[in-house]
Amino acid sequence: MRLVFAGTPAVAVPTLHALAVRHEIAAVITRPDAALGRKRVLTPSPVAAAAEALGVPIIKTARLDEAATAQITALGADLGVIVAYGGIVREPLLSAPRHGWINLHFSLLPSWRGAAPVQRALIAGDAELGVSVFQLVPALDAGDVFAMRSVHVPEDATADVALSILAEEGAGVTSDVVAGIADGTAAASPQVGTATLAPKLAFEDGALEWTEPVSSVFARYRGTTPEPGAHTTIDGARLKILTAAPASDAPVLAPGQLTGTKGAVLIGCADGALEVTRVQPAGKGAMNAADWWRGLRADESVRAGS
């Protein structure tokens, strides 16, 4: 089929590659170049870079407005495919392709509709993650589902690792759905169950609460790593937690109490401790947690979250 593909981050690239093998990509729609790094160099999105390598025409736009709609409609696509583009497809663009648009979403719908499904699922401690491919409709992630698949993700995977795994699996699922739409065998079914929402994370979502069980603290760390970043405060100074895991055989520590060990720092939770191995103090680079602790020269009265 003749497709238009909309996506921006790296997690959308596997699906673009999978579709380009079997179908004609009339154009790729992605967000404009972004200023990255300390020098604020304008850099194409990962999807734009992938499209350029494939020799596919690229439409860079922050909004699917009237001008973008006219440009995309003129392509005469059979189907639109969207994966984490970062913008809303509205009418008349929604109905412009002959088969409308399908969306690869990184959750088992109707769970976690919204911008941060994997992050919210991890924070909630969900034991099962997955992907869904559904028909795009005006309501948020509410369309009928063509395919859904549970995906195994390691129990210690942070959000970036989990998203990478789901992106690879989702590419194959999306490719199969597109093939089914092309040959007329694809069928979509209404979503079943109670919907939950996954709004975009704010910086405050990364704040670790040491009065919670260690499983909850670790879940929040996983869901907010690397962005917006799991963090706490020490004597009023922010400390970013880069690498951590539940501690085994830890001494009894009060919530927020810190103690140094060989190569790590333990921070007490309600029912155990989190073992922190890499941190980033405010205004400094990443470092080993043990080195940070030695440099802090703190006594036992210091508490995380204070």
Brief synopsis:
By secondary structure, the protein is an alpha/beta fold. The protein has helices spanning 13-22, 46-54, 66-73, 117-123, 159-183, 214-223, 289-296, and strands at 2-7, 24-30, 34-36, 41-43, 58-60, 79-83, 101-105, 129-135, 145-151, 230-234, 237-246, 258-261, 264-268, 273-281, 287-288.
* Overall tally of structural domains: 2
H and E order: EHEEEHEHEEHEEHHEEEEEEH
Question: Could you give the order of strands across the largest sheet?
Answer: 5-2-1-6-7-8-9
Low-confidence stretches: none
Find the structural class using helix and strand composition. alpha/beta
Q: What would CATH call the class of the largest domain? A: Alpha Beta
Ends apart, CA distance between termini:
58 Å
What is the radius of gyration computed over CA atoms, rounded to a whole number of angstroms?
A: 22 Å
Helix proportion: 25-40%
Q: Overall pLDDT, averaged? A: 95
Annotated CATH topology of the largest domain: Rossmann fold
CATH architecture of the largest domain: 3-Layer(aba) Sandwich
Can you tell me the CATH superfamily of the largest domain? Formyl transferase, N-terminal domain
Share of residues in strands: 25-35%
Shape annotation:
elongated
Number of helices: 7
Query: How would you characterize the largest beta sheet?
Result: 7 strands, mixed
The tally of strands reads 15
